[in-house]
């Protein structure tokens, strides 16, 4: 099992990761679109892509980790188990990680590279290589997983009940699926090229499979956390 890393060490790691995400996000938001059919990217902008939403999510999460570390360093007398603002801050961090940051990072990684391996044109057309550098592609679709695993190792995260986890993830998944359908309804284009090849029934079935996969990834995170930090009832010091 992992030993609890000091708040100072955590702060250094989190500042480094946050700086990386801020850089990647800033670079991505300032990309030009020459050579791409702008009709396919105008409606909803980058906000319709799960990859971009996850990049924003990871940036916000690690910024929250920095804030949590600073609060615990500045106010060491009020230990987090004493309740109050610090306890709420850590709980919010844990919920954000367990129900969003870890499941979505692993989902983006697994779904993107699985489809890419079959036919990259279905999810990441070759023309995009002229706009998005390879390092940024990996920043958005690959490095996200090692970074959440680092986070899982250096800090223990309390998992909510599985019913709550399933409910929150189902709701967030439905929101995104509704957004994808609305974009198609309003603009006539699908966010992801491969959806053009599917019937509406198949698309809904695909969304259902994705929802199931996300919940399995949530359970995987819980399992990995348990292996690192012990069972949920463990009395090990939490960071």
Automatic annotation (TrEMBL):
Lineage: Eukaryota, Metazoa, Chordata, Craniata, Vertebrata
Localization per Swiss-Prot or TrEMBL: Endomembrane system
Name listed for the protein in its UniProt record: Androgen dependent TFPI regulating protein 1
Recorded catalytic activity of this chain's protein: 12-hexadecanoyloxy-octadecanoate + H2O = 12-hydroxyoctadecanoate + hexadecanoate + H(+); 9-hexadecanoyloxy-octadecanoate + H2O = 9-hydroxy-octadecanoate + hexadecanoate + H(+); 12-(9Z-hexadecenoyloxy)-octadecanoate + H2O = 12-hydroxyoctadecanoate + (9Z)-hexadecenoate + H(+); 9-(9Z-hexadecenoyloxy)-octadecanoate + H2O = (9Z)-hexadecenoate + 9-hydroxy-octadecanoate + H(+)
Keywords: Membrane, Transmembrane, Transmembrane helix
Source species, domain of life: Eukaryota
Keyword Repressor: no
Membrane-related topology note: Multi-pass membrane protein
């Amino acid at each position: 099992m992992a030993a609890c890393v000091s708040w100072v060490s955590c702060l250094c790691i989190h500042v480094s990761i946050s700086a990386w995400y801020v850089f990647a996000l800033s670079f991505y938001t300032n990309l030009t679109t020459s050579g791409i059919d702008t009709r396919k990217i105008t409606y909803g902008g980058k906000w319709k892509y799960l990859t971009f939403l996850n990049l924003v999510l990871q940036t916000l999460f690690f910024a929250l980790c920095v804030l949590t570390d600073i609060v615990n360093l500045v106010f060491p007398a009020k230990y987090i188990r004493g309740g109050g603002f610090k306890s709420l801050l850590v709980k919010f961090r844990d919920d954000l990680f367990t129900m969003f940051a870890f499941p979505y990072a692993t989902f983006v990684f697994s779904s993107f590279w699985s489809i890419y391996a079959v036919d990259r044109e279905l999810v990441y057309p070759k023309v995009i290589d002229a706009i998005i550098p390879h390092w940024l592609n990996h920043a958005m679709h690959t490095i996200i997983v090692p970074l959440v695993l680092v986070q899982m190792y250096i800090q223990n995260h309390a998992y909510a009940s599985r019913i709550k986890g399933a409910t929150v993830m189902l709701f967030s998944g439905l929101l995104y699926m509704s957004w994808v359908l609305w974009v198609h309804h309003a603009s006539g284009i699908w966010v992801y090229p491969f959806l053009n090849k599917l019937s509406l029934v198949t698309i809904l079935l695909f969304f259902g499979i994705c929802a199931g996969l996300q919940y399995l990834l949530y359970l995987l995170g819980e399992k990995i956390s348990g292996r690192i930090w012990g069972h949920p009832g463990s009395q090990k010091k939490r960071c």
